[in-house]
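Good morning,

Attaching, inline, the backbone tokens for the sequence recovery test we're adding to the shared suite. The designed sequence is right after.
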């Protein structure tokens, strides 16, 4: 009986080729769009959940009005950090001001490496719940110290280690 239904369906598809193409094409496009929307929603709901307190981390943004247009920027004046600590310090456990992301030259023992990064206050590693492989999160208390990723540390080690292929 199932074979009979499939045979009739196939004959109708061949008999009405244009209508079948439109129906099957519309169904496949609809399913693809639905899948993409579902993936987009899933991504939005799971974004930045790798932080320990992801539901308590916030970014302050600034509204700016120019010529009747209001724009939003993630940049705020640097003194705002001290003002937040002074006025609202009991409401926030950590407050960290950060710079724009950009290229920075790192050097050690005449080895230079150009890497992308930011400057951030000493509370940054606590807010972002960074996993430290060596050292501690308190290292940013010293203004002459930096935190680097594992890949950057490996790049420095490769630069220090003499290689036969060089």
């Amino acid at each position: 009986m199932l074979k009979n239904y499939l045979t009739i369906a196939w004959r109708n598809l061949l008999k009405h080729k244009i209508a079948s193409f439109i129906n099957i094409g519309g169904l496949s496009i609809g399913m693809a769009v639905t899948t993409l929307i579902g993936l987009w929603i899933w991504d939005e709901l799971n974004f930045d959940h790798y932080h320990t307190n992801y539901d308590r981390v916030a970014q302050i943004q600034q509204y700016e009005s120019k010529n009747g247009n209001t724009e939003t920027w993630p940049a705020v004046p640097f003194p705002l950090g001290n003002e937040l600590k002074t006025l609202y310090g009991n409401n926030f456990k950590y407050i960290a001001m950060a710079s724009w992301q950009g290229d920075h030259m790192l050097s050690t023992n005449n080895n230079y490496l150009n890497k992308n990064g930011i400057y951030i206050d000493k509370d940054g590693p606590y807010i972002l719940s960074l996993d430290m492989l060596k050292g501690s999160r308190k290292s940013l208390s010293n203004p002459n110290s930096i935190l680097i990723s594992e890949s950057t540390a490996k790049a420095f080690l490769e630069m220090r280690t003499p290689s036969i292929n060089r």
